[in-house]
Amino acid sequence: MDSRYPAFDVLQAKDEWDEHTREIVLQRIETGRHTLSLLDVYQGQLLKEIASHIIYDEREDILRFIAYHVDRTIQNNAGEDQRKAGIPPEKDLIITGLGMVDKLSQGQFLLRFIELEKDKQTAVLGQLAGGIAPVLSGWDSKLQTAFFKKILALVVSAYYSYPTVWSEIGYAGPAYPRGYVRSELGLTDPWEARHD
Predict the structure, then answer these.
(1) Measuring CA to CA, which residue among 126, 74, 121 is closest to residue 102?
(2) What is the Cα–Cα distance from 91 to 10, expressed in whole angstroms?
(3) Prediction pTM value
(4) What pLDDT is attached to residue 32?
(5) Handedness of CA 69, 75, 76, 78 (dihedral sign)
(6) Tens digit of pLDDT for each residue in 7-23?
(7) d(Cα 113, Cα 103) in Å, to the nearest integer?
(8) Which residue of 5, 117, 126, 181 is surrounded by the most CB atoms within 10 Å?
(9) What does the alpha-carbon distance between residue 22 and residue 18 come to, in Å, rounded to a whole number?
């Protein structure tokens, strides 16, 4: 991704953050910490391939963090009481959905999703997004779109929580404890990104 703010690095302000915030943000870029515990290696690889289509970014460190974020998120039940009727728990939806992506790819192209050319991968994901993929083992239109919406939300959430992406979009990171001073339209605080 080309940055609109090539000289801006959000991590230059890390000493301004409180210790807890700094620890959370810095862990996001420590790739050695991004090991999967629920998803297996292949599911992680498949998830990274899907994510690369959603965010149009193929940087390995970011994709690895996204897979890790999804893995961690689906291990807890936060927000699960908001599930629609007939939609399985998030963990089951994601794990089953990843398997269905491969089954759909093999059914149409005789290859696993990660082995497909990019345009065919896009076609498979488009079918799921629209709920128009062939029904496999009860994986109907409602489940297809639920899976795609959930994976979309998780991937985008992870992507825009990554410090490198913050720098590229000009987001100056957590404002706590320093806070914003200049809140008038068009004014920025000294620590915020400026477009040259």
Answers:
(1) 121
(2) 33
(3) 0.89
(4) 79
(5) positive
(6) 889 999 898 888 999 99
(7) 8
(8) 5
(9) 6
> Would you state the pLDDT for residue 77?
66
Classify each residue of 8-28 as buried b or exposed e, where b means 16 or more C-beta atoms within 10 Å of its C-beta: bebbebeebbeeebbeebeeb
Burial of 106 (0-12, 13-18, 19+ CB in 10 A): middle
3-state DSSP assignment of residue 187 = coil
Chain position carrying tokens 């991937």? 155
Here the tokens at position 44 are 């992680």
* pLDDT tens readout for residues 157-181: 999 999 999 999 988 888 777 777 7
Q: Which two tokens stand for residue 60?
A: 């390995």
Q: What DSSP string describes 46-61? A: HHHHHHHHHHT---HH
Q: What percent of the chain has pLDDT over 70?
A: 91
Is residue 188 within 8 Å of 181, Cβ to Cβ? no
What single-letter amino acid sits at 172?
A
